[in-house]
Amino acid sequence: MVYYIRFLKTPKIQKLKGGSLSVSALICIATDLGDAFLAQDVDLLVTLTLKDSEKVLHQEPLSWKAGKRELPILLGPFHPQLSQHIIILSVSAADGRKPRSPSLDSLLGNPGVPLVISGWSAPFGGPGSLVAEKLVERRFGPKDCLNLRIWEETGNSIARHIWDAAIASVIYLQQISAGDSAVKAPLLETLLQPERSAPLRVIELGSGCGIVGIALAEMLSQCSVLLTDLPEAEEIVTQNIAVAKPTHSSNLEYRVLDWDEPLTDDLCNNSVDLILVSDCTYNADSLPALVSVLGRLVQTSSDAVILVALKRRHESEVVFFDLMQSSGLFNLHHDSMQLPSQHDQFDQIEFYCYGNKTRHP
Ligand SMILES: C[S@@+](CC[C@H](N)C(=O)[O-])C[C@H]1O[C@@H](n2cnc3c(N)ncnc32)[C@H](O)[C@@H]1O
């Protein structure tokens, strides 16, 4: 599993005796679930940048040690003028012995997914608050490729975080849409091809922060994505939609869709081509409702392909496969991807394409 830089206390500017300033924060490096801390030493790089120009104001190394549960950051003293600027604090893993520049985490090319996913704070200082909002931004992709930026909340909400299967889904969809010959997923290749005669209609269930659907709308033209989740995801996902950069002919929307509620008529009547589900099978209790929604959607859209990405977290999740089969949804293709884990281990993310067998013989 990959590990995420998390702000336990978001950065703040403090006045020191004599008028100079310091910037402090408290971080940890933990899994998506927040249930385990990184148990290996990692060199980190802490960077203060100006919000608008991204000019680096200050940079210093820091070490995360195996066995730690938190790591204080204290930068300074700085000139009092610092508080006039709106700044951002970022923490990234240094690459080898030399600290890495705070560039974007490369998900989509060499050197692949990093073990530690960097975090950028919300802006703070200037005329606004001296304390950063309880948010963390993830930035993915080299600048000449997909330049994906997604906000997460710093608390422990399930819906307002990015989960590992979402990261793998973004890479998988990007590989397919880029025609990567190493990935063989014929159904998805047809759907994601750049030259489509009609727009691609996509719905994502349990979208959380919206990273997968947003990435798709940023990588494909003529792609219309409806992100859905419970009400608690609405604020963060709409914030992410507001800063997203879908291609000029693509669009993003959000609406609440609770699997336990009946589907509204418009959702039942509007057909879709692709249904995305990432890291939504961890809770066996919610699987009957999830599968029932998938079945309803495929009733209307008999050609739709469902892409389910999952990381097995509990044995009870296997019931998902039985429920899908009982609903007449057939596994048409499956695949997997490895994400890095600590001590040079790997973690498996599984992908399953489901659909109506008669329509996809
Ligand atoms: C583990 S998170 C995954 C979020 C996102 N797909 C990702 O991979 O980053 C599971 C998501 O399913 C959503 N969820 C759980 N039960 C739900 C329900 N009954 N109706 C709609 N969404 C639900 C949660 O709110 C949460 O956003």
UniProtKB/TrEMBL annotation:
GO terms for cellular component: cytosol. The keyword Ribonucleoprotein does not apply. Keywords: Methyltransferase, Transferase. It comes from the Eukaryota. Coiled coil: none annotated. Transmembrane segments: none annotated. One of its GO terms (biological process) is methylation. GO terms for molecular function: S-adenosylmethionine-dependent methyltransferase activity. It holds the Pfam family Methyltransf_16. This is Putative methyltransferase-domain-containing protein.
